[in-house]
Write a structure and sequence with these properties.
heterodimer; A: 5 strands; B: Transcription Regulator spoIIAA; five-stranded mixed sheet
Chain lengths: 301, 122
């Protein structure tokens, strides 16, 4: 401020920014002063819009208090960390109660509207001032809604990625059925990532179980392309480096045709028609012989 | 001698403890060939458990060892290739074809004993 009390000569942008901050502070204190009635209005609108139906009216009101206060605080400071913490806090408070994420965004937008209306009411006599107030309010409020929405999307994506990872791991189990005999039942399409994971799990399984023979059954695999076929050959070769033999079983006629067509070196693979045949071969290789139990008493003539 | 080679009955056991230079690998190959002759060994186990990389030179050398020892009357088995190493090797096309492999020392000994029995039976 200049010494004679007049407006200091600053660049216009800075002036606007400062006055925006001042307006923001003013409207924040207005929102705080009228908090009780605005909160009630908001809670009413929430019920009217049939949001948060999983919660009782009392619960909605209780939550509304905290959420309201946090919203106004974030409006005031505008800090990104505060915004993200706000979004996280919101989901942690409400979602365990059985609320859908779109409802959460819905109530945030309703709150934005309720507060905006309140500002319209307060500044209605001075259109210029109202515009400036809204200039200060809208970006801040929209940032909040945006952060909440983006936060949810990111959280969803994180969960989806986690689940995909879990599904992938589940879908390629390495099972020990005898000492030294492992089975890898593969179901569904194999993409390069799955092929890699399959190989890693097989090798790990061989090491951990001291597997000597592994039967890899692909009955449940509808098609494979040349890239995947080559990966399967690599898997067999890698297992051999760990001293284990892989028997591939369950090749469909289509897959057998594919392998022949693309010229996969089949001498590198032991194949048997079906899983039963594969296990029987494996048992022979391991030196097992499976015989039926003797009859307990000889038949009397 | 960069790699300790121990005698165990009719077999030689060599455990590679750390990454070897190309020079060391060649020395190792020659040492083994010599010892197979000196002890009239029937089998050789090369344990690479401690290695987390097996490049193309190392792979070629291991193959050379298997051939050389075979020429001097011994069967060689490579044991202890780690899963990650096995994966990289096949991706690079280093397959150690024609060389016997086993999971670990115990399996390697079992393998050699079996081969010895078969040879006597023949």
């Amino acid at each position: 401020m200049a010494r004679d009390g007049s407006q200091p000569s600053q660049p216009p942008e800075q002036q606007t920014r400062e006055s925006t901050m001042a307006l923001l502070r003013e409207l924040v204190s207005h929102l705080r002063e009228n908090r009780t009635e605005l909160r009630e209005e908001w809670a009413r609108r929430i019920t009217e819009s049939r949001l948060l139906t999983a919660m009782t009216r009392e619960e909605v009101f209780a939550e509304a208090t905290t959420v309201y206060d946090n919203y106004v605080a974030v409006l005031e400071t505008g800090s990104v960390e505060a915004l993200q913490a706000y979004a996280r806090d919101l989901s942690e408070r409400i979602i365990p109660r059985g609320v859908e994420t779109q409802e959460v965004l819905g109530i945030v937008l309703l709150l934005r509207d309720v507060l905006a209306r309140s500002l319209f009411k307060k500044y209605q006599l001075d259109f210029d001032l109202l515009n400036r107030v809204l200039d200060a309010y809208e970006p801040a409020a929209n940032r909040i809604a945006n952060t909440v929405a983006v936060g949810f999307v990111q959280e969803r994506e994180r969960i989806i990625r986690q689940q995909q990872e879990a599904i992938r791991e589940l879908s390629t189990p390495v099972l020990r059925v005898r000492e030294r005999l492992l089975i890898l039942p593969i179901i569904g399409l194999i993409d390069p990532q799955r092929a890699r994971q399959l190989t890693e799990q097989l090798l790990r399984g061989i090491r951990e179980n001291r597997g000597k023979v592994a039967v890899m059954d692909i009955t449940g695999v509808p098609v494979i392309d040349s890239a995947i076929a080559n990966r399967l050959v690599q898997t067999v070769e890698a297992a051999r480096l760990l001293g284990a033999t892989v028997i591939v079983t369950g090749l469909s006629p289509e897959i057998a045709q594919t392998l022949v067509t693309i010229g996969v070196d089949l001498s590198k693979m032991n194949t048997v028609g079906d899983l039963q045949g594969g296990i029987e071969l494996a048992e022979r290789v391991l030196g097992y012989k499976v015989v039926p139990l003797e009859e307990s008493a000889p038949r009397q003539r | 001698m960069a790699v300790p080679i121990l005698k165990q009955g009719r077999f030689l056991i060599a455990s590679i403890q750390s990454a070897l230079t190309d020079q060391d690998l060649i020395q190792f190959r020659d040492d083994l060939a010599e010892l197979v002759g000196r002890y009239r060994a029937k089998g050789v186990i090369v344990d690479v458990t401690a290695l987390d990389v097996l490049d193309s030179f190392a792979t070629r050398t291991l193959r050379a060892i298997a051939y050389m020892t075979k020429l001097r009357g011994a069967e060689t088995v490579i044991v202890g290739i780690q899963p990650d190493v096995a994966l990289s090797m096949v991706q690079l096309g280093l397959t150690l074809e024609d060389v016997a492999t086993a999971l670990d020392l115990e399996e390697g000994l079992t393998f050699l004993n079996q081969r010895l029995e078969e040879a006597h039976g023949a």
